[in-house]
Amino acid sequence: MLEPKNNDELPPIPPKRYFTIGEVGELCAVKPHVLRYWEAEFPQLKPVKRRGNRRYYQRQDVILIRQIKSLLYEQGYTIGGARQKMSDSPEDLTKSNVNSSEIKSLVRDLEEVIGRL
User: How confident is the model at residue 4 (pLDDT cuts 50, 70, 90)?
Assistant: First the structure.
């Protein structure tokens, strides 16, 4: 979903269970007030809320935020268009431009490597 150039600019997601809104803002290069707004606009984005309504995001939330950011800022979707794209079938979001012959070739190569092991 994210453009390759965007992946290089964003820091890797550390192996943590929960992230604060400030940490997610830094990981996704988005301000906290934007994250709170997106939470209201995208029903898929539901961080865990604990003590005093503090938000704690999980890894899949961070990935989802990066997808939303890509749709809005990189691909030029409106909030409504991005919401519709996100609510469409999940396979559309993860679909790449790889055709079946490339996949079959990769499978053959992997089987060959496994055979050598």
Answer: very low
Which range marks the domain in which residue 92 is found? 4-116
State pTM to two decimals: 0.68
Query: Considering its fold, how many domains does the chain have in total?
Result: 1
- Sign of the alpha-carbon dihedral angle for 60, 11, 17, 42: negative
Residue 117: pLDDT band (50, 70, 90) is confident
Work out whether the CA dihedral 102, 105, 107, 110 comes out positive or negative.
Answer: negative
Which candidate, 66, 73, 83, places its Cα nearest to that of 7? 66
The radius of gyration of the chain's CA atoms, rounded to the nearest angstrom, is 17
Residue 86 near residue 77 (C-beta atoms within 8 A)? no
